[in-house]
Amino acid sequence: MSVNTESGAQQLEWQATRAANWLIDLVFPPCCGHCGRVDFRFCDCCRRKLALIALDISARSVENLDGLCATGPHRGLLQDALQAFKYEGATGLAGALATRLCAALQRQSWPIDLVVPVPLFADRLQERGYNQSQLLSQLVAETLDINSSAEWLARIRGTRRQARLSQSERHMNVKDAFSASARVNGLSVLLIDDVVTTGSTLRECAGALRAQGASAVFALTVSHS
Ligand SMILES: [Zn+2]
Q1: I need a surface site. Which of 23, 68, 91, 151 has the fewest CB within 10 A?
Q2: CA 179 from chain center: how many Å?
Q3: Using an 8 Å Cβ cutoff, are 222 and 71 in contact?
């Protein structure tokens, strides 16, 4: 279950962005985000190695969350893959990363009714052309046959990139930045994101879901830093 509310105008803008990116790639060919080989955002060789990285699940306690775990530390190949996936358009990595998430989730005993990605604000979504966490949550939900919705949790104001902020700045940056639909009432929700650092974003998302009556909120990320 997922709802597509892209307007025709948005789709045209994204198509124009993709066409511009194609031209830029023609003049400046992309190279692998890990080994530097020219022609691929993330080459097949590194993609195969990515699938071989063992799970190194770590759990963390964060306010508003009934459980939080990541599939490995944010370094090396996993870090480079997430960088390419999030910022360089390497959306083809979604499958390998979602496979890690599914494997980690199957080791938890979390009862999940609904999978929800950490949302982007509209301007960031337009700039990037996709929400990396939404791609992951769709694949996880499809693989494990769980409902998913990217519509039931929204980022209601713009926020700065968390990576450049101190811990206290991160907290203020995302405070009250999310709003959930009343349709999460009574549901146990799994939040999906690419990386967790302090957990500020996940805590705020979970707070918004709980405010609308979510019975439990868990969170799963590809990496932790
Ligand atoms: Zn490579």
Answers
A1: 23
A2: 17
A3: yes
3-state secondary structure of 72: coil
Q: Is residue 18 part of a domain?
A: no
Q: How far apart are the CA of 68 and the centre of ligand 1, in A? A: 30
Nearest alpha-carbon partner for 160 in 107, 123, 126: 123
**In terms of DSSP bridges, do strands 67-70 and 114-117 run parallel, antiparallel, or are they unpaired?**
unpaired
Q: Which residue range is the domain that position 208 belongs to?
A: 54-224
Query: Could you tell me the distance, in angstroms and rounded to a whole number, from the CA of residue 82 to the centre of ligand 1?
Result: 13
Provide the pLDDT for residue 1: 47
Number of domains in the chain: 1
Q: Taking a C-beta distance cutoff of 8 angstroms, is the pair 115, 190 a contact?
A: yes
Supply angle C-alpha 119, 220, 155, rounded to 5. 15
Banded pLDDT at 62 (limits 50, 70, 90): very high
What CATH code is carried by the domain that includes residue 203?
3.40.50.2020
The model's pTM is 0.86
